[in-house]
Amino acid sequence: MTNPFSLREWRHNPCLMSPLTLTGFILLCLLWLFTMILKFPTFLLGLFLQPLTNRMGFIVEFLYPLSIGRWVHFYIMRLAMRARRLDKSHGYHSRAIEQRLAVVEQRIYVHALPQFMDNLGYLIVSVPTAASGNILAVVIDCGDAEAVTRQIYFISERHYRKRRIQVVSILSTHKHHDHTAGNRALQNQFKDTLKHIMGGAVEKVPCCNYTLVNGQIIPLPADDSNDMNAFIEIEAVATPGHTRGSLAYVLRPKVPTSSSMSALLFTGDTVFSGGSGVPFEADIDTNQETKANKMTADSLLRTSAAGYAMERCFAELLHRCVSHLQMPRETADRIIVLPGHEYTTDLLARQWSQPNDACRWKLFSPAVFFEVASHFYVGNHRRNLPSNNGNLLIAPSPLSREVLINPGLRSLLRRGVLVLNHLNQWHNHFAVRKVPEAVTGAFGVNASPSHLRHRRSRASNPQSTEKQWNINGNDLSRPVFTTVYATDLEALMHDLEKNRVTGPVAAARLEQMVLALQQPNVGRRPIPSSLPSSNAVYKGLLGFALLGSAPNALSLSDSVAMKLPAPVKHSDALLVSKSRLIAVLYWLGLLNEENEGQRTIRILEQLWWECSKYESLLKYDLEEAGTQVRDTIQLGTLKWLVYGVPTLRPAGLFCMPCKRPEPMQDVRDHPIVQCGLKREQGELVRHDMYSCPLCIGATGQLIQNFEQINGSMRINSVSFEVAPLEVSRED
């Protein structure tokens, strides 16, 4: 018999529970309202404080340079460094005394100088041929003079038979204390030889007596028996963003060398291995990527703000490192990035949870993901070695690897793909003259298929010992892991077991397996017979600006002092350089040396010719298009000719709040009106899950046998019916 007074009966009794539920709901609403009343002052306070919290970079820019800022910074670092273990790293965060990077064999070497918790300075050494000559050196970034002095002594003992190293110059990348606090003490330590402390013209580097500007070639130490200028040159490249006057230093060998070095980029806090520095002094702009998805073709581009400012600095370094006209694409393995901090593992770890497009792995090939994962694993291993080994450095890193593992460079890569898509759409629909499918060479190097040239030959390198670790570009660029598809490897193993392939054929197939991982598993392309949407036009213009326009100074006075382009009132006035755009696309791997890359360059030249003609800058015969065109054109001209969006006249100073800017062109005059094409949002996505190596375990494929047909593999599969290949649209 059921107990009428049981809790279960009451729980389901509507006569009792309905009024109780209503009473509880009303009490909950009243409690919520009471809580909101109490929180309302906090809400108002948050509204007032948000503009201030968005400007926390002001603290770094204006308070950090003060003495109190320096004291707080070093006090925090001292607290963190108390827990540092004493091991083979000599008390520094990394074991680097034994390591040296050969730039010019027997003459020029670079040594890392670990400082504080994670800072990295560098010592560039010039060794004379005569045993009695002076060893001359340049220090890049001295935050801790005691640490630098001790390490110079150890380096002399390990590598140069205790010969005295004379420090002649200090090059400071920027003004922050962890990079400059040791300048005065090091000057006192080497007061007989240290003559120059160099830094950006607007940086106020401590003890600076030699200011540098953008593009300046730095005088290097020299004496009767040893002249560093004869072997290398160092150029100062302005990278405004982290600070107003930040500089990167590009070292280029002047003589042929067997050390496989093409350029060394000392990037300070602008570029790290696996990430970028914080743009403390760039223009303020929050949630850039979220805002970019809501912008239209008429929106203003803020290319000097936050992350965009850093991306322009990345592109500037790609443009200035080495001329792409004299170097093949494989030179990216021999362009070495030397950052100002060892943040690599932390920056790589963040990429697994970042929501931006640069970390959306479905947009990239599997090779990108596995390169990030493998480098993170290697870095985590090197930074957590037993105490009797000491932690090893992960940096320096070759540019070819950074293009894959660095979100800033991957973002530029995505923008480059979008720019090329829009460039082809313009050429197919609106170009006055079409570029033929087959074109002559556009590069200064011999074009040959890239898949035949990806093997690395080991450069000659003196044998390393326990006390001397001699490394070169090939050592830095050599991968630890190589990932291939299991089905491809199983097919090769099956053919080897059956003696169906020879050794050379097997080696060629192994190379193809590595290259196969670089191909995306999902094909993406623009919607045919359509025009980019208004938001896609904004992103395309942003790509042209970030890839093709040089970083401008953050103020008019800075532009004069640093010899940088001045800030513009409207983004349509930005100057986009054709040569810069080509160089950046080339080093990102989007332009090859074959016909496809050469044709893209011809299309760019055709576009620049039409833009020049439109601007009435040059007048010449059509046959000479692409040979006498001005290198820079305004972004507004590209906006009109490529996208059919009018350039906007900036409104007057007193009319800006109420007056809409007037267009300089009538959209009815553009061929876009007569073409009848519509603007479409999104792209076409193509994927065959029955042949996709990533889906093979979910579609029920049973691999029966492998056949070799004309040197390529074919997988015969059963147990499913092949459906027609579907092409879907993704917004």
UniProtKB/TrEMBL annotation:
* Signal peptide per UniProt: none
- From the record, give the transmembrane residue ranges: 20-38
| Keywords tagged on the record | Membrane, Transmembrane, Transmembrane helix
Q: Locate the Metallo-beta-lactamase domain: which residues? A: 118-308
- Start and end residues of each stretch annotated as Disordered: 450-472
* One Pfam family here: Lactamase_B
- Which segments show compositional bias classed as Polar residues? 459-472
Q: Its domain of life?
A: Eukaryota
The name this protein carries in UniProt is Metallo-beta-lactamase domain-containing protein
The organism encoding this protein is Fistulifera solaris (Oleaginous diatom)
**Lineage of the source organism?**
Eukaryota, Sar, Stramenopiles, Ochrophyta, Bacillariophyta
